[in-house]
DNA sequence: AACTGAGCCAACCGCCGAGAC
DNA sequence: AGTCTCGGCGGTTGGCTCAGT
């Protein structure tokens, strides 16, 4: 019946590791490589749980780890990624070579969260506290208007949580490349706000929902449209823990296939602030972005900026180091899944400056 | 010098999906 | 088919350090 237990939990050492124990793990890994952690304590002569050994290795002993302070660039990337994908520390850490999810998580909890709070920005929603209060005021208003909130919820559900075939968010053929994303905000305007002037006051609250739904949509669509969507990463992204607005949706299939997880672990310049800022400036100078069409590109694993197509991806890390073997030789100008999210976020802001909450320089 | 509280971070906890048995 | 472990994940905690009193 099942496997035998990996270790006697009550009889193993716990707590801080000694230099001698570290040396044993290092010696074992150098001789036998990584794998089968349950056997490591026995083979290495350690009175530790295998899981504990694995954690010690991955969080501290790995030779590729950086133990110095986080750079401002890393800091900014963490903030932006947290804003885009929330507390997916392992995903964020993959964009920061030499950093572990534990490092990033600790740095966030001890430094960045406080830093944002001091700047008047809510570290959870990345919105200014002033707007949080404003939203709170609107929510109070909503709670006092039972009929209108019922109507609002009904419209919201029918507009945003319907099946993709009838979804107002995604219009057109869901099985072709002609899928067109309509900004949800626009849909709601058409379907419910247009005939109800009072409903505009619901916008701030809707924007919060909208932001979450857009993230959820992105992950659902990208993961479901990729040929290899069975990875743990995808599962984690769609896990019910992650979002409060979970709705089961049949996957939308597109004609393109991709390994979307490649975007997460690859990035020629994940920071890419020079390029990123340059692109942003170009976007600004070109006026409104083609948000509607490019949203679809995200779903297909393609990111465009103006006429520039980031359809293929380099695989180097933050320092230009090769971080994995997923190399696309056709790569000319690189981007990543995470960068794509950030791009789209900024595009949305530039297209709907008066509707979406403002962006902040951290 | 002794105490206290904050900051920090390594390690643990508990959950989950995948897969072994 | 059911039970269990493994590996991975995010959340939490224990204990160390250090500045302030």
Describe this structure in words.
It is found in: Nucleus. GO terms for molecular function: DNA binding. Pfam families: Myb_DNA-binding. The structure is a single chain. This protein has about 350 residues and is mainly α. Among the domains are: about 20-60, Arc Repressor Mutant, subunit A; about 70-135, Arc Repressor Mutant, subunit A, CATH 1.10.10. Helix content is about 50%, strand content about 5%. The protein has 15 helices and 4 strands. The protein has helices spanning about 20-30, 40-45, 50-60, 70-85, 90-95, 100-120, 130-145, 145-160, 185-195, 205-225, 230-235, 260-265, 275-285, 290-300, 335-350, and strands at about 170, 180, 305, 310. The protein has a two-stranded antiparallel ribbon. Strands 3-4 form a two-stranded antiparallel ribbon. Strand 3 and strand 4 (about 310) form a beta hairpin. Helix 4 packs across helix 15, helix 13 (about 275-285) packs parallel to helix 15 (about 335-350) and helix 14 runs antiparallel to helix 15 (about 335-350). The protein is elongated and about 60 Å long. The relative contact order is 0.10. The protein binds a DNA duplex (21 and 21 nucleotides) through helix 3, helix 6 and helix 11.
